[in-house]
Structures are given as C-alpha cells and as structure tokens.
Design a protein that fits this description.
69 residues, mainly alpha, two-stranded antiparallel ribbon, elongated, ABC transporter permease
C-alpha cells in the first residue's frame, strides 16, 4: 500500500510543526525568564516572601487568624 503526500499536505504538516515549536519556545521563555521584578516596575529583581497569619482556636472551637475581630 503506497500513500502519496502532496505539496499541500507537507506544507500543512510543516505549519503545524512550526506552531508547535513556537509554542514550546514561548512556554520555556515564560517559565525561565525572571519576569516578577519587571511586573512591579522595580529595576531590581526581588523575591517576595509570603507568610500566613498565626492561627488560634477561638472559644467556639473554630480556627481563626490572630488579629481578626
């Protein structure tokens, strides 16, 4: 069984492959580029630390963040 591939089919496969490679390159660029310093407008790259508030058990037995009314 022989299958013939025309010029249109080969061109379509090349377009799909080019789009796939472009998408992979953009994903790698987004994953490994340090964008967090630029987004805030800061000239220096900064790492932001996040801390959750300490928790306490209320009189009703529920958990509440310390400092909540």
């Amino acid at each position: 069984m022989t299958v013939g591939v025309g010029r249109g089919s080969a061109r379509e496969i090349l377009v799909v492959l080019a789009l796939a490679v472009t998408g992979l390159l953009l994903a790698v660029l987004a994953a490994f580029t340090p964008w967090y310093g630029v987004a805030a407008g800061s000239p220096e790259v900064e790492v932001v630390e996040m801390h959750s508030p300490p928790w306490a058990i209320t009189d009703g037995g529920e958990l509440a963040a310390v400092g909540e009314g």
